[in-house]
Amino acid sequence: MASMGNNKRNRVIATVLCGGPGSRLRPLTYYFQKSMIPIGSKQKPLLEYIVLLLKKHGIRDIILLAGYKHEQIENYFGDGSRFGVNIRYSLDRSGCSGTGWALLNAYESGLLGGCSDILVYYGDILSDIDLSDLINTHIRFSAYATIAVARGYRVPVGVVYVEGNKVLRMEEKPILNLPVSIGVLVIKVEALEHLKMLSEEYMDDEIDIMSHLIPTLISMNMPVYAYITDRFWYDVGSTERYEKLDAKLVDELFGRLLG
Fold first, then answer.
1. What pLDDT was estimated at residue 147?
2. In this structure, is residue 7 part of a structural domain?
3. Which domain holds residue 86?
4. Strands (E), the chain
5. For residues 233 and 150, what is the distance between their CA atoms, to the nearest angstrom?
6. Which of 18, 84, 118, 189 has the smallest number of CB atoms closer than 10 Å to its CB?
7. Residue 155 pLDDT > 80, yes or no?
8. 67-106: per-residue pLDDT in tens?
Protein backbone atom coordinates (compact mmCIF):
# COMPACT_ATOMS: atom_id res chain seq x y z
CA MET A 1 0.00 0.00 0.00
CA ALA A 2 1.39 3.38 -0.94
CA SER A 3 -0.47 5.37 1.69
CA MET A 4 1.20 4.33 4.94
CA GLY A 5 -0.87 5.92 7.62
CA ASN A 6 -2.29 9.30 8.48
CA ASN A 7 0.75 11.05 9.90
CA LYS A 8 2.68 13.50 7.77
CA ARG A 9 5.82 11.39 7.85
CA ASN A 10 4.18 8.64 5.80
CA ARG A 11 1.25 10.24 4.01
CA VAL A 12 1.15 10.55 0.22
CA ILE A 13 -1.36 12.72 -1.62
CA ALA A 14 -1.92 12.30 -5.36
CA THR A 15 -2.37 15.23 -7.70
CA VAL A 16 -3.61 14.71 -11.23
CA LEU A 17 -2.93 17.40 -13.82
CA CYS A 18 -6.15 17.71 -15.80
CA GLY A 19 -6.57 21.41 -16.40
CA GLY A 20 -5.08 22.16 -19.80
CA PRO A 21 -7.16 22.92 -22.91
CA GLY A 22 -5.76 19.88 -24.74
CA SER A 23 -5.00 21.75 -27.97
CA ARG A 24 -3.30 18.67 -29.48
CA LEU A 25 -6.57 16.77 -29.11
CA ARG A 26 -8.72 19.25 -31.01
CA PRO A 27 -11.42 19.14 -32.25
CA LEU A 28 -12.29 16.56 -29.53
CA THR A 29 -11.41 18.96 -26.75
CA TYR A 30 -13.81 21.57 -28.03
CA TYR A 31 -16.40 19.25 -26.46
CA PHE A 32 -14.47 17.14 -23.91
CA GLN A 33 -12.01 17.99 -21.20
CA LYS A 34 -8.91 16.08 -22.35
CA SER A 35 -8.82 13.77 -19.33
CA MET A 36 -12.50 12.93 -19.90
CA ILE A 37 -12.14 11.50 -23.40
CA PRO A 38 -13.65 7.98 -23.50
CA ILE A 39 -11.33 4.99 -23.99
CA GLY A 40 -11.68 1.20 -24.12
CA SER A 41 -14.76 -0.74 -25.14
CA LYS A 42 -16.64 0.53 -22.07
CA GLN A 43 -15.92 4.12 -23.11
CA LYS A 44 -14.95 5.19 -19.61
CA PRO A 45 -13.09 8.51 -19.18
CA LEU A 46 -9.30 8.30 -19.21
CA LEU A 47 -9.30 9.98 -15.80
CA GLU A 48 -11.36 7.13 -14.33
CA TYR A 49 -8.57 4.69 -15.15
CA ILE A 50 -6.10 6.97 -13.38
CA VAL A 51 -8.28 7.34 -10.28
CA LEU A 52 -8.80 3.57 -10.05
CA LEU A 53 -5.07 2.91 -10.49
CA LEU A 54 -4.38 5.26 -7.57
CA LYS A 55 -6.98 3.47 -5.48
CA LYS A 56 -5.48 0.07 -6.35
CA HIS A 57 -2.20 1.24 -4.83
CA GLY A 58 -3.80 2.52 -1.66
CA ILE A 59 -3.78 6.21 -2.57
CA ARG A 60 -7.20 7.53 -1.68
CA ASP A 61 -6.47 11.24 -1.14
CA ILE A 62 -6.61 12.73 -4.62
CA ILE A 63 -6.54 16.34 -5.75
CA LEU A 64 -7.59 17.04 -9.31
CA LEU A 65 -5.80 20.11 -10.66
CA ALA A 66 -8.46 21.31 -13.06
CA GLY A 67 -9.36 24.34 -15.13
CA TYR A 68 -10.64 24.08 -18.67
CA LYS A 69 -14.10 22.41 -18.67
CA HIS A 70 -13.61 21.46 -15.01
CA GLU A 71 -17.38 21.13 -14.66
CA GLN A 72 -17.27 17.88 -16.65
CA ILE A 73 -14.80 16.41 -14.18
CA GLU A 74 -16.62 17.60 -11.07
CA ASN A 75 -20.01 16.42 -12.31
CA TYR A 76 -18.66 12.94 -13.04
CA PHE A 77 -16.37 12.33 -10.05
CA GLY A 78 -17.92 14.48 -7.34
CA ASP A 79 -16.22 13.90 -4.00
CA GLY A 80 -14.91 10.52 -5.15
CA SER A 81 -17.03 8.45 -2.79
CA ARG A 82 -18.57 6.57 -5.73
CA PHE A 83 -15.06 5.32 -6.52
CA GLY A 84 -13.96 4.67 -2.95
CA VAL A 85 -11.58 7.64 -2.80
CA ASN A 86 -11.55 11.19 -1.45
CA ILE A 87 -11.39 13.75 -4.26
CA ARG A 88 -10.84 17.48 -3.87
CA TYR A 89 -10.36 20.10 -6.55
CA SER A 90 -7.86 22.86 -7.16
CA LEU A 91 -8.95 25.18 -9.96
CA ASP A 92 -6.37 27.03 -12.04
CA ARG A 93 -5.79 30.68 -11.30
CA SER A 94 -6.90 33.11 -13.95
CA GLY A 95 -3.98 34.24 -16.09
CA CYS A 96 -1.58 31.55 -14.85
CA SER A 97 -0.64 28.65 -17.10
CA GLY A 98 1.58 25.62 -16.76
CA THR A 99 1.80 22.54 -14.59
CA GLY A 100 3.97 24.36 -12.06
CA TRP A 101 1.33 27.01 -11.40
CA ALA A 102 -1.35 24.31 -11.06
CA LEU A 103 0.66 22.44 -8.42
CA LEU A 104 1.68 25.63 -6.62
CA ASN A 105 -1.94 26.75 -6.49
CA ALA A 106 -2.94 23.55 -4.68
CA TYR A 107 0.01 23.96 -2.30
CA GLU A 108 -0.74 27.58 -1.44
CA SER A 109 -4.44 26.76 -1.00
CA GLY A 110 -3.53 24.36 1.81
CA LEU A 111 -4.79 21.28 -0.02
CA LEU A 112 -1.45 19.50 0.39
CA GLY A 113 -1.20 20.05 4.12
CA GLY A 114 -0.34 17.07 6.29
CA CYS A 115 1.47 15.08 3.62
CA SER A 116 5.14 14.25 3.23
CA ASP A 117 5.20 13.48 -0.49
CA ILE A 118 3.10 14.25 -3.55
CA LEU A 119 2.47 11.89 -6.41
CA VAL A 120 2.09 13.93 -9.60
CA TYR A 121 0.30 12.20 -12.46
CA TYR A 122 -0.22 13.83 -15.85
CA GLY A 123 -3.87 13.46 -16.81
CA ASP A 124 -3.30 12.41 -20.42
CA ILE A 125 -1.19 9.35 -19.55
CA LEU A 126 -2.60 5.83 -19.45
CA SER A 127 -0.37 3.39 -17.56
CA ASP A 128 -0.39 0.36 -15.29
CA ILE A 129 2.80 1.51 -13.55
CA ASP A 130 3.45 0.05 -10.10
CA LEU A 131 2.83 3.20 -8.08
CA SER A 132 3.53 1.46 -4.78
CA ASP A 133 7.02 0.50 -5.93
CA LEU A 134 7.62 4.01 -7.30
CA ILE A 135 6.70 5.61 -3.98
CA ASN A 136 8.66 3.08 -1.92
CA THR A 137 11.72 3.72 -4.11
CA HIS A 138 11.32 7.46 -3.60
CA ILE A 139 11.13 7.02 0.18
CA ARG A 140 14.01 4.52 0.29
CA PHE A 141 16.36 6.96 -1.46
CA SER A 142 15.13 9.93 0.61
CA ALA A 143 14.68 11.66 -2.73
CA TYR A 144 13.47 15.19 -3.30
CA ALA A 145 11.96 14.00 -6.55
CA THR A 146 11.68 10.62 -8.27
CA ILE A 147 10.74 10.56 -11.94
CA ALA A 148 9.22 7.50 -13.58
CA VAL A 149 11.05 6.77 -16.83
CA ALA A 150 10.80 4.09 -19.50
CA ARG A 151 12.99 2.92 -22.34
CA GLY A 152 11.97 2.02 -25.86
CA TYR A 153 10.15 5.20 -26.86
CA ARG A 154 9.14 5.25 -30.54
CA VAL A 155 9.86 8.59 -32.18
CA PRO A 156 6.68 9.71 -34.00
CA VAL A 157 8.61 10.96 -37.06
CA GLY A 158 11.33 9.69 -39.36
CA VAL A 159 14.94 10.40 -38.35
CA VAL A 160 17.48 11.54 -40.97
CA TYR A 161 21.18 10.92 -40.35
CA VAL A 162 23.35 13.49 -42.12
CA GLU A 163 27.00 14.35 -42.54
CA GLY A 164 27.35 17.91 -43.65
CA ASN A 165 24.47 18.15 -46.11
CA LYS A 166 24.68 14.57 -47.31
CA VAL A 167 22.00 12.14 -46.16
CA LEU A 168 23.65 8.92 -44.98
CA ARG A 169 20.52 7.01 -44.09
CA MET A 170 16.97 7.36 -42.87
CA GLU A 171 15.05 5.49 -40.22
CA GLU A 172 11.27 5.72 -40.04
CA LYS A 173 9.93 6.18 -36.50
CA PRO A 174 12.83 4.49 -34.69
CA ILE A 175 12.67 3.21 -31.14
CA LEU A 176 15.05 5.09 -28.85
CA ASN A 177 16.82 3.16 -26.13
CA LEU A 178 16.88 6.25 -23.95
CA PRO A 179 15.05 6.76 -20.64
CA VAL A 180 12.14 9.13 -21.22
CA SER A 181 9.78 10.65 -18.70
CA ILE A 182 6.31 9.09 -18.75
CA GLY A 183 4.48 11.85 -16.89
CA VAL A 184 4.45 10.31 -13.40
CA LEU A 185 6.67 11.46 -10.53
CA VAL A 186 6.86 11.82 -6.77
CA ILE A 187 7.96 15.08 -5.14
CA LYS A 188 8.77 15.79 -1.51
CA VAL A 189 6.41 18.48 -0.28
CA GLU A 190 9.36 20.67 0.75
CA ALA A 191 10.37 20.87 -2.92
CA LEU A 192 7.36 23.08 -3.54
CA GLU A 193 9.07 25.90 -1.68
CA HIS A 194 11.45 26.00 -4.65
CA LEU A 195 8.44 26.13 -6.94
CA LYS A 196 7.22 29.11 -4.94
CA MET A 197 10.54 30.88 -5.50
CA LEU A 198 10.31 30.12 -9.23
CA SER A 199 6.86 31.72 -9.31
CA GLU A 200 8.33 34.95 -7.98
CA GLU A 201 10.96 34.84 -10.72
CA TYR A 202 8.64 34.02 -13.60
CA MET A 203 5.65 36.00 -12.35
CA ASP A 204 3.00 35.79 -15.10
CA ASP A 205 5.00 33.45 -17.34
CA GLU A 206 4.29 29.75 -17.70
CA ILE A 207 5.94 27.50 -15.11
CA ASP A 208 6.41 23.82 -15.87
CA ILE A 209 7.23 21.05 -13.41
CA MET A 210 9.53 19.13 -15.75
CA SER A 211 11.06 22.14 -17.54
CA HIS A 212 11.58 24.39 -14.51
CA LEU A 213 11.18 22.73 -11.10
CA ILE A 214 13.07 19.49 -11.71
CA PRO A 215 16.06 21.18 -13.44
CA THR A 216 16.19 23.67 -10.55
CA LEU A 217 16.36 20.86 -8.00
CA ILE A 218 19.09 19.13 -10.00
CA SER A 219 21.12 22.36 -10.30
CA MET A 220 20.93 22.75 -6.50
CA ASN A 221 22.26 19.20 -6.04
CA MET A 222 19.03 18.03 -4.47
CA PRO A 223 18.61 14.24 -4.65
CA VAL A 224 16.61 13.59 -7.82
CA TYR A 225 16.28 9.94 -8.89
CA ALA A 226 14.84 7.97 -11.79
CA TYR A 227 12.48 5.05 -11.38
CA ILE A 228 12.85 2.86 -14.45
CA THR A 229 9.75 0.88 -15.36
CA ASP A 230 8.89 -1.54 -18.15
CA ARG A 231 5.15 -1.26 -17.50
CA PHE A 232 2.74 -0.15 -20.20
CA TRP A 233 2.35 3.59 -20.70
CA TYR A 234 0.68 5.58 -23.42
CA ASP A 235 0.43 9.31 -24.04
CA VAL A 236 -3.15 9.94 -25.17
CA GLY A 237 -2.48 13.65 -25.57
CA SER A 238 -2.92 14.03 -29.33
CA THR A 239 -5.68 13.17 -31.80
CA GLU A 240 -3.34 10.83 -33.70
CA ARG A 241 -2.35 8.97 -30.53
CA TYR A 242 -5.96 8.75 -29.38
CA GLU A 243 -7.09 7.28 -32.68
CA LYS A 244 -4.34 4.64 -32.51
CA LEU A 245 -5.15 3.52 -28.96
CA ASP A 246 -6.37 -0.08 -29.22
CA ALA A 247 -9.60 -0.58 -27.26
CA LYS A 248 -8.92 -4.31 -26.91
CA LEU A 249 -5.50 -3.63 -25.42
CA VAL A 250 -7.07 -1.20 -22.94
CA ASP A 251 -9.60 -3.85 -21.94
CA GLU A 252 -6.92 -6.52 -21.51
CA LEU A 253 -4.62 -4.36 -19.38
CA PHE A 254 -7.15 -2.40 -17.36
CA GLY A 255 -10.36 -4.46 -17.31
CA ARG A 256 -9.79 -5.50 -13.71
CA LEU A 257 -9.60 -1.89 -12.59
CA LEU A 258 -13.13 -1.26 -13.83
CA GLY A 259 -14.47 -4.42 -12.19
1. 96
2. no
3. 12-149+178-258
4. 12-18, 38-39, 44-45, 61-66, 86-91, 117-122, 125-127, 145-150, 153-154, 159-163, 166-171, 175-176, 180-188, 224-228, 233-235
5. 9
6. 84
7. no
8. 888 999 999 999 999 999 999 999 887 766 688 888 888 8
- Say how far apart CA 48 and CA 10 lie, in whole Å: 25
> What value does the mean pLDDT take over residues 96-120?
86
Which CATH number do you get for residue 28? 3.90.550.10
Backbone angles phi, psi at 91, to 5 degrees: -90, 140
- The answer to whether position 159 is within a domain reads no
233-235/125-127 β-pairing: antiparallel
- Cα distance between residue 134 and residue 139, in whole Å: 9
pTM above 0.90, yes or no: no
CB proximity list for 255: less than 8 A, separation 6 or greater = none
